[in-house]
Amino acid sequence: MRSVVLLLLGAHLAYAGTHSLKYVYTAVSRDIDFPEFTAVGLVDDGQFMYFDSNIKKAVPKTEWIRQNEGADYWDSETQSDIGSHQAFKNNIQIAMERFNQSKGVHLFQWMYGCELDDDGTKRGYMQYGYDGDDFLTLDKSTRSWTAANPQATITKGKWDSTGTKAEVDSNYLENTCIEWLNKYVDYGKDTLTRKVSPQVSLLQKDPSSPVTCHATGFYPSGVTITWQKNGQDHHEDVDLGELLPNEDGTFQRSSTINVTPDEWKKNKFSCVVEHQDKTIRKTEKDIITNGEDSISIGIIVGALAAVVLLIVIGAAGYVVYKKKQGFKPVSGSDDGSNSSART
């Protein structure tokens, strides 16, 4: 099986002035100490609901959804997710047969969502994935499905034969999804419209180690971290980390540059962090090296964030494609039926 990484808010990051609603579903073929099926809902990249096949119940993860939706809402979500669980068990078995796999741990995933800009611009996406790669993607412009591999063309043929599924899913993304997004943003406006600037540190284990530019504590999630060399943008030997949620609802992200100590001496490197309308620049003089408490704290925070994500959000629901780190879930079985409709 291909290696996978955590979905740390994926490819569809919110633009400035943008709100987003996203659902992520993941089915696992075998017991690997994670639930067989998970469903996660996020508004503006922060989790607001969660379901898995162990607890068999959809539960709120924010105070704003807990205060504004009652038992009927959660009963409906629970029944929808139970139906999706059964459909996904079927989907993963079909996928294994098509890829000629009889054993091993395999993942079948679905992610979908919508985004709304302040100027009214809307975007929507829906995509399936299998074992860390794209499988099927909805093309809203043509109301059809794009197959990423030969195994997916069978499903594409079934779904495109009538065009019903693509039409229904496109209409959901363009209308119903936006309606619920607006409702959720209104529920949580005090939280979802806040702006918190990042705290930025340059961290280095020792003088010969890579230097990490770590931004944390910011909200909303849209942040840009770049490196400059002698005042010019520098992209070589740079590894941009995933966006991670903090326990308080803010976010963190890091970017690491791997250059030799000699290069640091001969050139002027700087890390530039942009968030909302604020720009923060850190240079060599700001580097915190091993032996100082701050570096230890920074590394621990970064390492624990992934653990917190696993425990609080549900690891299996956040496994994503190795290639694109973005995918979309659907609640239908492989025959094209839609076993559950998301609110």
From TrEMBL:
<dbReference type="InterPro" id="IPR011162">
    <property type="entry name" value="MHC_I/II-like_Ag-recog"/>
</dbReference>
<dbReference type="InterPro" id="IPR037055">
    <property type="entry name" value="MHC_I-like_Ag-recog_sf"/>
</dbReference>
<feature type="transmembrane region" description="Helical">
    <location>
        <begin position="295"/>
        <end position="321"/>
    </location>
</feature>
<dbReference type="GO" id="GO:0006955">
    <property type="term" value="P:immune response"/>
</dbReference>
<dbReference type="InterPro" id="IPR003597">
    <property type="entry name" value="Ig_C1-set"/>
</dbReference>
<dbReference type="InterPro" id="IPR001039">
    <property type="entry name" value="MHC_I_a_a1/a2"/>
</dbReference>
<dbReference type="Pfam" id="PF00129">
    <property type="entry name" value="MHC_I"/>
</dbReference>
<keyword id="KW-0393">Immunoglobulin domain</keyword>
<keyword id="KW-0325">Glycoprotein</keyword>
<keyword id="KW-0472">Membrane</keyword>
<dbReference type="Pfam" id="PF07654">
    <property type="entry name" value="C1-set"/>
</dbReference>
<comment type="similarity">
    <text>Belongs to the MHC class I family.</text>
</comment>
<dbReference type="InterPro" id="IPR003006">
    <property type="entry name" value="Ig/MHC_CS"/>
</dbReference>
<dbReference type="InterPro" id="IPR050208">
    <property type="entry name" value="MHC_class-I_related"/>
</dbReference>
<feature type="domain" description="Ig-like">
    <location>
        <begin position="198"/>
        <end position="288"/>
    </location>
</feature>
<dbReference type="GO" id="GO:0009897">
    <property type="term" value="C:external side of plasma membrane"/>
</dbReference>
<keyword id="KW-1133">Transmembrane helix</keyword>
<dbReference type="InterPro" id="IPR007110">
    <property type="entry name" value="Ig-like_dom"/>
</dbReference>
<protein>
    <submittedName>
        <fullName>MHC class I antigen</fullName>
    </submittedName>
</protein>
<dbReference type="InterPro" id="IPR013783">
    <property type="entry name" value="Ig-like_fold"/>
</dbReference>
<feature type="signal peptide">
    <location>
        <begin position="1"/>
        <end position="16"/>
    </location>
</feature>
<dbReference type="InterPro" id="IPR011161">
    <property type="entry name" value="MHC_I-like_Ag-recog"/>
</dbReference>
<keyword id="KW-0812">Transmembrane</keyword>
<keyword id="KW-0732">Signal</keyword>
<dbReference type="InterPro" id="IPR036179">
    <property type="entry name" value="Ig-like_dom_sf"/>
</dbReference>
<dbReference type="GO" id="GO:0005615">
    <property type="term" value="C:extracellular space"/>
</dbReference>
